[in-house]
Amino acid sequence: MSSTRRASKGSPFRQERFASAPEFERGLMANLVAKRCAILDRTEDRQLIWFLQLLSHQNGGIKNLAAELLRKYPDRIATSSMQKFGIKSNKVYSAAQVRAVRAEMGSGSFPLKGEVQEANDLDALHLLSGDCERQKAVEAALRHEAQSFPLSYAASVFLSECKAAADSGLETHLMAICLDPALPVSDGAPWYFPTLISALREFQAEWIGARQPQVVTSVGDTLCSALEYAGTRRKMVVADGAARIGKSFAAKTWCNLNPGSARYMECPASNDDFSFFRELALSLGVSVNLKSKAQELRSRVEEVLRAGDLTLVIDEAHYLWPQSHFRNTTPGRINWIMTALVNHGVGVALVTTPQFFRSLSAIERVTCWTSDQFKGRIGRYVALPVVLSRDELEELAAVLLPAADSNSIRAAARYAESSGKYLGALEAITDVAKYFCESDGREKVEFKDVEQAIRESVTPSDEALKAALASATEVKRRRVSKVVSAPPQPDFERGATPLPTDGFRARDTAPPRQVKPEMLPG
């Protein structure tokens, strides 16, 4: 039977023929990596494996990581003995040193003078046939050849052998570290890169260091503390804050600073299970295809998260609630998080706006679902700061406009402070100012660019949007279903949205028991 996975030569051109190309393959599957980590005792070893798994799903994957390691640590591509003897270009290894290096390489190459090599396959065939004359001739030829071998070798020839082995085998070995339960997470292998694990730990530390934020705002500091609690205590945390104050940026930054123990997910604004579990599977690195079933994805996701190594950070968590209501509908995503994750000790952080609790109250009003169990599973609730200080806004503006003068930075920060779009306005100003600067053929943003951006682009846009929101009227139509999720912000003007007064109401007590007269004693 012919294979349906490959197109025969000369067959008609079809786009899907290339769907199985290895270049399209995603990184390491998280459910397989979770099995590997399950047998590792040390936390730092598991975090290193999960870090490699994360890199495997980024641009270039493990292949890019292998190339970066070879570029960054070229002096470590040598056996342990070579590192001890020296690897300078003018270094020459003695016969004893050559034997030590060959033993580490497991190679029969680099013969020394007097060492008789084995005959090739054709000669071995003659020897097995019992041709004594041929046997003597071969032995004599091998002894003669052995006298022509050198007494020593230059270190450069061994370095070339190590480099060739690393080019062809390092990518595969990195994947094996993440999957093979027989491989120890320690130095010693592969033979051409014996300090690989140490190099990977250094690379991990530098990778994290390069992602340290230039500015840590009060919002970011408060949110990161809450996420740290969710990860270390394996509890569910709800971080609630107004829109456009930097919650998403802070959540992504914290996950980048914890690549071996956290994964970030943006909750899709949909009702179906497939889109939710597909987005979750993609964020974890679980295998996904168009024919995947929601139930299959859910099982794989649970297998990964219940391993206990990863904290799940869900941004835009107000979309966890049903986006439309039919009577007796229950919040399936919330129920799944409670029963499949929190009940099994998985750290979960929900980053949301006050819309989250308005939706909770609406669900309780129109369905039979009650929130008591959900509230009981909230290990920590954090109300994020509503606004940033003026100094923080100026620090953020300085990061977005690194070459701008103080007047430009101050102007951008002042406008963002007064705008309903807040940090969105700051981003718009810097983006338009850079556009004006580039259009004028300059590299450095000047005050006139910022002023022009505010006057000609950002302010007219904000005023037009404010007018559109003020004049909007409700369209009258026959209601088929009731929308549960409330709008993210009732007004364009900035302001904190209060939590519902009945958000954490006390439990209802049972009525007093009615006792019949005949039940009384005496």
Structural commentary:
- The protein is mainly α.
- The chain has four domains: 22-79 and 162-209, no CATH class; 80-159, no CATH class; 218-383, P-loop containing nucleotide triphosphate hydrolases (Rossmann fold, 3-Layer(aba) Sandwich); 390-465, Helicase, Ruva Protein, domain 3, CATH 1.10.8.
- Helix content is 49%, strand content 6%.
- The chain contains 20 helices and seven strands.
- The chain has helices at 30-38, 43-56, 61-72, 80-85, 95-105, 121-128, 132-146, 155-179, 196-209, 218-233, 247-257, 273-284, 294-305, 332-341, 355-366, 372-376, 390-400, 406-418, 423-439, 447-471; strands at residues 92-93, 153-154, 236-240, 262-266, 311-315, 348-352, 378-383.
- A five-stranded parallel β-sheet has the order 4-5-6-3-7, with helices on both faces. The chain has a two-stranded antiparallel ribbon with strand order 1-2.
- Helix 19 crosses helix 20 (447-471).
- The model is unreliable at 480-486 and 488-510 (pLDDT under 50).
Bin the helical content. Answer: 40-55%
Distance between the termini: 92 Å
Elements, N to C (H/E): HHHHEHHHEHHHEHEHHEHEHHEHHHH
Q: Assign the structural class, choosing from mainly alpha, mainly beta, alpha/beta, alpha+beta, or little secondary structure.
A: mainly alpha
Task: Give the tally of structural domains.
Answer: 4
The CATH H-level homologous superfamily of the largest domain: P-loop containing nucleotide triphosphate hydrolases
The residue-averaged pLDDT reads 84
CATH architecture of the largest domain: 3-Layer(aba) Sandwich
